[in-house]
Amino acid sequence: PASLLGGPWNFRPSLEILQIIYWITVVAGILSLVGWRTILSLMTFALGNLFLVSFIYSFGDTHHPHNLMMLALLILALSPSGGAVSVDAVRRRAAHAVQARRVPVGSPLDEHDPFARWPLVLIQWMLALMYASSAWCKLTTAGWEWMNGDTLQYYMLEDALRWDRPLGIWLGGQHLPL
Question: Helix or strand or coil: residue 102?
């Protein structure tokens, strides 16, 4: 109904708001890379990317790699990131050294967290399941014909013609290499 389209749901951000969200996301990405306020930075980075990709998806094609990247960023934001090699870890070790009044011995790489591995393993399993699901769907829908190169050639030509990419148009016209 039309009543659902009114109110706060009928909001399109201006270019200035999109630019502010973009730069906040870039800064959060840099801060999460060096490990300053790692969890907060990662969550801001993930949500900013999610918003920007969702906004772009509102006007065009959706592509699967972006969806998996958004899930991976959210998983990393919920993980114990920044525990060993980060600005947060250096600040934590320095505060502990000041409190204990001694210089810490050992490398930050010697620290182990039993929960540090789960986000990477989960992302690996998601990738494996995504590719297995994709292959299963292609085999059950199109059979073995999808492997002959025509499908790849069609999508390459469609994308190259849309974006006017001469190399893609040339590659899409070459059936033998595909």
Answer: coil
